[in-house]
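Form 7-S
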Amino acid sequence: MQTRTIAAGGHVAADLSFQLKNLQVFLQVAANDSIAQAAKLLFKAPSAVTRSIAELEQALGVKLFERNSRGVLLNAYGQLVLVRALRIDEELAQAAAELSRPRGRPVQHSNGALMHLLYNGRKLKLLIHLADSRKISTAAAHLGITQSGASMALARIESVVGEPLFHRGVQGMMATDAAHKLVVRAKRVFAELRHMGSELASASGSLAGSVVVGILPVGRTYIFPMAVASVAMQFPQIRTTTVDSPFERLMSDLRTGDVDAIVGVPREGEQNQDLAIEPLFTDRLAVIARAGHPLAAADALTLADILGAAWILPWTASPSRALFDHCFREAGLRPPVPIVESADLAIVRQLLCVSDMIGLASARQFRLELRAGLLVELPIVLPGMTREISLITREGVRLSPAVLAVLNAIRQQVAEDMDDSDAENSWS
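Output:
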């Protein structure tokens, strides 16, 4: 199950998701330095173009153009918006290409029916909600429209696309491959809009915006909370949301822009090809038990000594579990079968404190309990039980000033934590 926690806050940027059509007009005006020329290319009246620009400026809270004798020219705010708008246009152009390819038809021009459809924020949101919920009624409720209205909108979308985007089945409305690709592009578009607001706020002298970070267990107990506390004190208008989901879901959300960064252990293989992976620190896994546990009295333990213990272990598919099982196999032993599989720190902590179970965990995760003497690290060396904790972002993404502030705070906290760890020599 995915959980979300919001920390910090204050300023919340305006919802720009329904400004896509005005943004399309903005691109034409910016490209031609002229309201009249943009109106001609868009087949609109100049007054309609002027109105679109005014609506966009009102939503953003800043003026985007300066008028002079040569026409209208982008100001500094307009230049910032242009960078994001071009990235949005590229995403939608790629979406158009992907939708056109299966039918062998040439890609529509920017003013064609398909691009006109893709620049409709409400329709893109309908597709996203429908793909996520698989229910037309739920998608309609999210948008505040009737179910019949949502059904009619979907029919119009599929008519323009030229093929069904969803199939009705026993599990609800199932997205086709074309729909999945379109939803990925749509989510990236809305991520660009979210970051656009942060950039404009920063340019105005107020660092603000929303940041979404996926956090795996090793970063939850100390490093990330301390980093967020630091950001909240310096920049109270930054809103930070943490997402606690399985790694595969976090990776999917990272690629769509729903998550800005992940703090955790990267997986190996081809799935890292489009990612930027920045190592933060090396984490050591240890065997943890309650104070006074019968095994804690030994001067040294072997793998055979702990083989028959009541174990709490990470999930089977996790990198730390793979390291643990490999450690026993290398010693010619069959890996223990756990009584409990969990990555929930609250559950693991409670079980360790009130029972004779022992657990595999990062000493960092239980630093407070170890220092307080509630838990102890058993005297056993587990060869090769280290893992690289990294900051993972999508390659090529343009991170907002708010996101960069949070990521820099994480890096700073890691550096301070390393200094503290070296001073105490409490783990390697």
